């Protein structure tokens, strides 16, 4: 019998998806990131996106599983590949998995060669990931320290609708520090103007970013990252991917669907037009005008018990380095992969075709 607290015990409690697919998931995001990296800084975000989608799809189709894309590149008629509902994998074996992908998260970042672009995906057993519509989610993301604090103080809970100061007070107490020592990450968007003012009003420090609030969300669950909270509305797919990682890492996340026209202050006509276009499809997913505003917690966003997650850096970011290219396809890539058992791997992979021409290198 292994000691219950050893890595051996963790590995043995991994579910079938984690056991069979976690090592392969790494290859999938690595391939997408390397493909994207050849397009880095070339100013063509659509092409960068396209090559990562193609690479991710090719790799996914090598995996022995019956996979269904639940969060993907869009509806079938607008996305030729990795569309919502697409079946991927060889179809061999017993594994039935639901899949969330963002082959190039931060297409602008990649196209402009600036930090924070990643290739990212998650998998779980059927119905293990919330598969909502491709709209926005408003969210709040914090790390496991806060979960621990809430357990000890049941009256003090992070609340999506509470004033930012209330939530930051809880985070400050959880970290045993002052609010002005905390950092909140939020997308730099007009729709967040008031929220940014409110955060600054608490004395907390703000990290405004142009794109890519998924890795900052994950960073809230990693001590030493210097990020304590992520707030604001962004893509719902990115939010579910964040939730998959936070479920594995034991963090907390609350989120609520919101139509982009509503979040971005559209006119009543624009809001009505978006509702008319999107509500019928939302209703087929059980989302109605009555429940669209419900707050979802991590168990609703990522209910799976056998979740796996992988992200590979395209350009350098807060947790991951970018891709380095050594010539003729040889590359070095940095990733984080993790699974529900509790394993978190930071990997530094080198792919070399010709060892004489490109001997293994330290950096
Ligand atoms: C966010 C952010 C993404 O889109 O989801 C954002 O995390 C939301 O879209 O990196 P808007 O640009 O409409 O605000 C990204 O910036 C790009 O996918
Ligand atoms: Mg995308
Ligand atoms: Mg994206």
Automatic annotation (TrEMBL):
Coiled coil: none annotated. One of its GO terms (molecular function) is metal ion binding. InterPro entries: FBPase_class-2/SBPase. Signal peptide: none annotated. It holds the Pfam family FBPase_glpX. One of its GO terms (biological process) is gluconeogenesis. GO terms for cellular component: cytosol. It comes from the Archaea. Keywords: Carbohydrate metabolism, Hydrolase, Manganese, Metal-binding. Belongs to the FBPase class 2 family. NCBIfam families: glpX. This is Fructose-1,6-bisphosphatase. The lineage of its organism: Archaea, Methanobacteriati, Methanobacteriota, Stenosarchaea group, Methanomicrobia.
